[in-house]
UniProtKB/TrEMBL annotation:
PANTHER family: PTHR45033, ZINC-TYPE ALCOHOL DEHYDROGENASE-LIKE PROTEIN C1773.06C. It comes from Papiliotrema laurentii (Cryptococcus laurentii). GO terms for molecular function: oxidoreductase activity. InterPro entries: ADH-like_C, ADH-like_N, ER, GroES-like_sf, NAD(P)-bd_dom_sf, Zinc_ADH-like. This is Alcohol dehydrogenase. Gene3D superfamilies: Medium-chain alcohol dehydrogenases, catalytic domain (3.90.180.10), NAD(P)-binding Rossmann-like Domain (3.40.50.720). Pfam families: ADH_N, ADH_zinc_N. Residues 16-368 form the Enoyl reductase (ER) domain.
Length: 370
């Protein structure tokens, strides 16, 4: 039985990490509908969006509530169910989906966007959460809660970029992943597991070396000598190669890549478009620069000209819907892939986890254990 009170964080102001305040005697939410479940949150993970919301640099398409309970990515255990619940039982391990109500449509409806955890509505930085049974998915059976807490945003966004829209990833295609953040590393894992080629970029050779070590087990081995198949996994250090779009084409045999996982935005979008083949997809899922400082002329070159001459598909990508997320979980279980976790913090040290993100010290996901 759940206690009467719990710990949770609220954003008292949005002027930085110091706005996070820990409440130790918040009321535990109660099930009020036959189809609701009560989840004991076991772990959560941070995303760039969480930091941007705390810093007031995120341009939400909806009002952000005062005293928001932040964070959208978590894993937990069902501890109580309503009388009409059929999808889960007490003891099941689940993750709430980010856009509540986003079940089957490829793109989130406005009603589900305005029910986004940790932004439009209260999030998961609390010990207990009530959710409709349809707004959660079972986590991979081999995952710990710390690993599963990375699934709802990073893996789901990567899956959406590769499979939720046209064109869909096919074996033998090439995916260019920008950077070594959670979405890019997840996309690299998913692509390799699907038999695709991956080119990954970073300005840090040490991060590229670490990515190589982590991703090599997913590279297929030659049946002749058991060695990794050459050119399936390649890297670009863009601190040394300014024209990394041309380098990506060179590494891909002179052809444009099939997919670009674009997570930065300002200063990279033009090169991302130029690196993709005709009809390929540039999936824009993030914008790591300060939203409030975006100039009206967002890039130094005419973006329309770049898209026109590349004949590229360029689209914004959100997390995938619940149905696709369940497909993703099955793929994770079949491949055995595991998320890249940089560091795990205790819940009482959530501010330190945020600061770790702000400082850009992380490689992969920053996780908080409850």
């Amino acid at each position: 039985m759940a206690p009467q009170t719990m710990k949770r964080y609220v954003l008292k102001h949005r002027n930085g990490v110091e706005g996070l305040q820990l409440e130790t005697d918040a009321p535990v939410p109660e099930i009020t509908s036959p189809h609701e479940i009560l989840i004991r949150i076991k772990a959560l993970s941070l995303n760039a969006r969480d930091v941007q919301i705390a810093q007031n640099t995120y341009p939400p398409p909806h009002p952000i509530p005062e005293n928001l309970v932040p964070v959208s990515d978590a894993s937990g255990e069902v501890v109580a169910v309503g009388s009409g619940v059929t999808r889960f039982k007490v003891g099941d391990r689940v993750a709430p989906i980010c856009f509540q109500g986003h079940y089957n449509d490829e793109d989130p409806s406005w009603s589900s966007v305005t029910r986004g955890l940790g932004g439009a509505i209260h999030g998961v930085a609390q010990e207990y959460l009530v959710s409709d049974e349809n707004d959660a998915v079972a986590i991979p059976s081999h995952y710990t809660h710390e690993q599963a807490s990375t699934m709802t945003i990073a893996y789901s966004t990567a899956w959406s970029s590769l499979y939720s829209h046209q064109p869909k990833l096919q074996p033998g295609q090439t995916v260019l992943c920008l950077g070594t953040g959670g979405v890019s590393l997840a996309a690299a894992q998913i692509a390799l597991a699907a038999g695709a080629r991956v080119i990954l970029t970073s300005s840090s050779q040490s991060k590229l070396d670490r990515a190589d070590e982590i991703l090599q087990p997913l590279v297929p081995k030659s049946p002749r000598d058991g060695r990794p198949v050459p050119n399936v996994l390649q890297f670009i250090d863009y601190s040394k190669v300014e024209q990394w779009d041309q380098e990506a084409k060179r590494l891909n045999g002179g052809r444009g890549v099939d997919f670009v996982i674009e997570i930065s935005g300002q200063g990279t979008i033009a090169r991302s478009i130029r690196s993709v083949r005709q009809g390929g997809l540039v999936a824009i899922s993030g914008y790591l620069t300060n939203y409030s400082s975006i100039p009206q002329d967002i890039i130094e070159e005419d973006i329309a000209v770049n898209i026109l001459y590349a004949a590229a598909c360029v689209r914004g990508v959100f997390v995938c819907n619940r149905s696709h997320q369940e497909d993703m979980v099955r793929a994770i279980e079949a491949s055995g892939m595991e998320p890249v976790i940089d560091k795990v913090f205790d819940f009482d040290n959530l501010k330190d986890a945020y600061q770790h993100m702000v400082d850009g010290k992380h490689f992969g996901k920053v996780v908080v254990r409850l």
